[in-house]
Sequence to fold (132 residues):
Amino acid sequence: MRHAIRLLASPSTLGSSTGLNPAPLTLLPPIPLYRRILRAHRKFLPSEMRLLGDEYASSEFRSHRSVENPIHIVGFLNEWQRYAQEVEGDSWHGTKLDTDKIDKMSDQQLGQLYELMQAIQKKAREDPEGEI
Fold:
């Protein structure tokens, strides 16, 4: 990903807006996007969720440092940028996962998602009055 960072160093659009298609997102470079995510966590999430989100974002960005495939990099940055917008807009409460995204997940990702679901359900059983 280090070589591709130079290509992504300044915000750019992925195409032009024509006809009925919505205008594409302007991709942020990895470091400003990572900082934006941490700021969104600090401003909009409760402390427990913030800790979980910060750890997860940190590990994901760290594990994708060495990625060389530009398509993978653009997809990674695009999804994290959407995530930051959802957290900032407070539109993530009660939102269901898109079935298309679930279909594209690997077995490992589905396993991680299942473990996360179990942890959330366990926390809800232990603390029924608190918010998750």
